[in-house]
């Protein structure tokens, strides 16, 4: 297909009012595509450039049939999710699994009936077995290691089931699917307060709020490891995958592994603040996780452009601005709103 014909495709971004989806919509519009978004709410931090923005619940089959109508390609990023404080407590397992599975069932069936040409599904590194992530210094997260399956959360089990659902539609109905397993994507215009924020945003917020010499609370012993990928790199790789002949599943992440304590120290360095780390009990997930990029390098010839430090610098100063804005709004209160 020529680039000119490709640009005539109409694209639907499910979850385009969220963090990664919002960045993806901006990218697609900058490339000249016609874009429709469906999400429960409009983007919290910026006005979406989408040609059409439908506020709707994708757990409703009729909404899915409506938003898929006339669409050529779909990016399915809509899910019920959040950071460790939301996913790993166990308090939200039923709603997380019900909502996300229902969305994927609805979108896939609507896509089949509407003869959608291609669909991208955003899975997660949470599908990887807990038994391969007990050593914080040597986690195993290569794509083939997903089985025998043993995710550490119901969120991970749902993502793994949905991967199989998309692949089944590919085998049985010929739907062209692309699947990526995201590894801790972070950046500007993401959730930074309220309980669903992920580690980089939560720590950036805490550092921005605290005064020199105060204590910063870090869940667990802080020796648990992760890798974090800046959102622009994530969107780059998603676009390469979508335009390729490769289906996946494939990791989209960074191989720059770091402990959570050291992540906090890196953010303190960016902020030029000397704080004391206070390790406290809290949900932490697996002990170690790092993206294995062997397959994505070979299949898509992709590597991240941004280092962790570069991405954190952009993210910290954006969150600092949010904290200042909230502090001004709630200056008569001793703490920021939850």
The CATH homologous superfamily of the largest domain corresponds to NAD(P)-binding Rossmann-like Domain
Integer tally of domains = 2
Average pLDDT works out at 93
What level of helicity do the residues show? Answer: 25-40%
What is the CATH topology of the largest domain?
Rossmann fold
Rg (C-alpha, Å): 20 Å
Order of strands in the sheet with most strands:
3-2-1-4-5-6-11
Query: Which structural class should the secondary elements be placed in?
Result: alpha/beta
User: What would CATH call the architecture of the largest domain?
Assistant: 3-Layer(aba) Sandwich
Oligomer: single chain
Report strand %.
Answer: 15-25%
Low-pLDDT ranges: none
CATH class of the largest domain: Alpha Beta
**Number of E-state strands:** 13
Which shape, going by the Cα principal axes? globular
Instruction: Please give the largest β-sheet.
Output: 7 strands, parallel
H-E string? HEHEEHEHHEHEEHEEEHEEHEHH
Provide a count of the helices. 11
How far apart are the first and last residues' alpha carbons, in Å?
A: 49 Å
Keywords: NAD
Domain NAD-dependent epimerase/dehydratase: 11-253
Pfam family, one: Epimerase
InterPro entries: Epimerase_deHydtase (IPR001509), NAD(P)-bd_dom_sf (IPR036291)
